[in-house]
Amino acid sequence: MARIENTWFWLLLALLLKTLVILFLIYNLHLLNGDGLIGICSGDCPDYLHTAQNVAKYFTFGRIYEGVLSPYAGRMPGYDLVLAPLSLFFDELTAQNLTFLLQIILSMISTYLLARIAYFIFPSKKVFYFTFFVYGINSFVTFYDLFILTESFFVSAFIISFYFFISAKNTWHYVLSGAFLTWAILMRPYILPIWVLLNLYLIYLFFKKIFSFPVLAKVILSFNLVLGVTEAIWITRNYVHFGKFIPVVTDVHAGLKEGKFLALMEFVQSWGGDMVSWNPDSEMVLFYKMPQINHLPNKYQSFKDLPEYVFTSAYNADSLEKVKKIYAITDDSTFSGSERMEADRQVTALLRKYRQSFIEEKPFYFYIVAPLRLLPKFLFHSGSYYLSNLPFAEQNFFQKTVKIIYSGLYYFTLLVGLSFVFYSIANFKQIAVNQWLILLIPLYIIALCPLVLRRIEYRYFILAYPFLSILACYMLNLLLLYFSNPKLLKD
Asked: Where does the chain cross the membrane (predicted)?
């Protein structure tokens, strides 16, 4: 096997692995359908294209609504840093395809660097090899290399940032780490607490006398330089346009305006339902199901399938059925515009009333049970839901086999990776602080999304996945060591 330091060998091997996975995804999802697009543009993709084109044309990060371009702070412009320059020089199709290629290239680089992180923190060649191949063949993250969404760039930027941070040999490495972390924050601001954690780690190194105070000051300044400048520009821009102090974004819903959909999402969230309308296993599809998944069977067939605690004195299953019918009118073109607007107003008011009723009558369920109900939904699913547009029963033998393998890989990464929690508790004194860092990153994501944000779209797990891959591969190596020489671990 090639030396770990043989960068070009590992990058080319990562490219080979990524290419094989991507070709399978393209084949299985029928992406080459003659439109010239090599990836997928759905979900939030049109929003990213819209703001990027406005930056390219008008040099304004904003949205056009009713013919008027208005500044926007529902998201930060992390994705636009790439997509806007491409939109300036190329047509929309070419800009998207070039974005896909850049995502694949960065994903390839991050695969190698993740394995280097594993080797640096758990100094074992086997851990490096296991991490490289386990993460290299994964499709859970690679799937998003083919999307115009922030996930691919976000996870690659964070891995690159963490690599420079954890293995820094000079202040320029900290500047690079801070720059890539800033980019990641611009795409996913909710990782700011991880930025705080990394700064605390640097202070810890000072107290352990690894850094002198002058060195600590220089390192912290270098690490936070790019973020500090970026935040100063962003906050100033937002104050000029909105007259408010907005350090990251206006809200957690990407600036979604008050109305039926926001009210529906927050109502479903309030009692611990999954608000993802393109997941057939979610409660959201009882109210609204996206057309592209109409062929997939729903987990919940009627409102009566919901847990009894969901209902209050203000509403029952029949009430929600009426809400669904009113909601349908808002999207039905056979009704006049005024009728649809009235239906929107009516359904929004009902959903707000029902949500408030649930909070007032069942606070324990709202604050405790509901988020805990979302936790297993976030973690325990097929792990390979994205591999095919067909129900499992309609897939051929090859497709079923690949799906089962990738489901197994997901659960290996999740369960074996999380087993490090118990290992670290049992061996508390032997666990290095940088090893705790590797564990705290996925634990933060696992706690944040279902328990705090109440958002359990599976793609939000994407940052936890690579670091759980490292931990899973480390635990695998420990198991192999134990079975080959049980006394070695006992000693």
From this structure: 7-27, 95-115, 127-146, 152-168, 180-207, 213-235, 408-426, 432-453, 460-483
Q: Is the pLDDT of residue 1 over 80?
A: no
Q: How far is CA 58 from the centre of its chain?
A: 30
Measured between alpha carbons, how far is 65 from 55 in angstroms, rounded to an integer? 15
**Tokens matching residue 208:** 């352990």
Distance CA 67, CA 353 (A): 34
pLDDT of 74 strictly over 60: yes
Asked if pLDDT for residue 488 goes beyond 70, the answer is no
**What is the Cβ-side half-sphere exposure of residue 480, based on CA atoms within 13 angstroms?**
10
Q: What is the pLDDT of residues 227-271, one digit of tens each?
A: 999 999 999 999 999 999 999 998 877 767 778 999 999 999 999
Domain map (residue ranges) of the chain: 7-252+385-490, 260-376
CB within 8 A of 452, min separation 6: which ones?
371
> What length does the chain have?
491
- Are 467 and 191 spatial neighbours (Cβ–Cβ below 8 Å)? no
Tell which residue, 249, 144, 244, 243, has the closest CA to residue 190: 249
- Which amino acid is it at 213? F
Q: Which of 317, 313, 456 is nearest to 378 (CA)?
A: 456
Angle at 326 between CA 325 and CA 331, to 5 degrees: 95
Alpha-carbon distance values, 134 to 217, 245, 270 (Å):
38, 43, 37
For helices 192-207 and 433-447, what crossing angle results, to 10°? Answer: 160
- The pTM score is 0.95
Considering only CA atoms, which of 394, 401, 402, 416 is closest in space to residue 465? Answer: 416
The three-state DSSP-derived secondary structure of the chain is: CCCCCCHHHHHHHHHHHHHHHHHHHHHHCCCCCCCCCCCECCCCHHHHHHHHHHHHHHCCCEEEECCEEEECCCCCCCCHHHHHHHHHHCCHHHHHHHHHHHHHHHHHHHHHHHHHHHHHHCCCHHHHHHHHHHHHCCCCCHHHHHECCCHHHHHHHHHHHHHHHHCCCCHHHHHHHHHHHHHHHHHCHHHHHHHHHHHHHHHHHHHCCCCCHHHHHHHHHHHHHHHHHHHHHHHHHHHHHHCCCCCCCCCCCCCCCCCHHHHHHHHHHHCCCCCCCCCCCCCHHHCCCCHHHCCCCCCCCCHHHCCHHHCECCECHHHHHHHHHHHHHCCCCCCCHHHHHHHHHHHHHHHHHHHHHHHHHCHHHHHHHHHHHHHHHHHCCCCCCCCCCCCHHHCCHHHHHHHHHHHHHHHHHHHHHHHHHHHHHHCHHHCCHHHHHHHHHHHHHHHHHHHHHCCCCHHHHHHHHHHHHHHHHHHHHHHHHHHHCHHHHHC
